[in-house]
Amino acid sequence: MADQRFDILPDVAAEDRDLRFTPVDNSVPTALTSKQIGHFNEQGYIAPLRIFDEKEVTGLREYFDDLLQRTLAMGRDSYSISSAHLEYGGVYDILCNRRIVALVSDLLGESIVGWGSHFFCKMPGDGKAVAWHQDASYWPLTPSRTITVWLAIDDADTTNACMRFLAGSHHHGHLTWRPSAPEEHNILNQTVENAERYGTPFDNCLKAGEISIHSDLLLHGSRANESDRRRCGLTLRYAPVEVRAGQGWNAKGVLLKGVDPDQYWGNPKRPLKN
Fold first, then answer.
1. Is 135 helix (H, G, I), strand (E, B) or coil?
2. Which residue from 200, 239, 243, 258 has the highest number of Cβ atoms inside 10 Å of its Cβ?
3. What structural domains does the chain harbor?
4. Close Cβ partners of 1 (under 8 Å, ≥ 6 residues apart)
5. What is each CA distance from 227 to 165, 220, 241, in whole angstroms?
6. Tens of pLDDT along 109-145?
7. What is the pairing mode between strands 163-167 and 200-203?
8. Sheet containing strand 163-167, strands side by side
9. Do residues 244 and 157 touch, judged by C-beta distance below 8 A?
């Protein structure tokens, strides 16, 4: 599986997708509160949620620092560590973390897969931004039921370009976008114009070891990191087992809870390489 490569920015123009927000209907959550679920339905996100303590954060950061150095030594950049759970056992373990899975299950149901893992590491002064965009716009998945868990490896705040949400924007469905212009220095390649009309800006400030959770239709982005501090986060993607994938992306999905009656998702084993 480690030899199979998946495009970070796939061409999904030919994909037939249902991109509409489905509110969470869960009257008996076990890890989240009903108020938090209500906030997710209304605003499109939940934050912050503490997952790892200080000692665990130190271990996570040491692990990522080593992984980043290995990646840079191969001539790749700090944004290229994608589908990492298929290659690195340590990332696979984070994707499968029981505390995270319990939170995700309250939003997605009893049978879920984790299919994505991508480090977004903004180095000090790297000058690259992330334009306002919707995750679902990039993915060959239907329906749009994926949620993203953003795990802070470093403290993320307005100084070092934390992620920003446009609260409530997920209610507008799939929005029109244009290809990003070179002068935007966008890490990705889509830009939603005049995005602020769709929601209320929120700075997603997180301490290392905290997570946020957001809908795949929520508009979000981040400014360039002009500070002298690194800002690294690990994005983890989760979906109900009934979601269907194009371009072979079902091979990435790890069954984390419940059953996959059609055995549709690949359910890869933990990589031996850490």
1. helix
2. 239
3. 34-257 (2.60.120.620)
4. 86, 251, 266, 268, 271
5. 21, 20, 41
6. 999 999 999 999 999 999 999 999 999 999 999 999 9
7. antiparallel
8. 130-133, 220-222, 163-167, 200-203
9. no
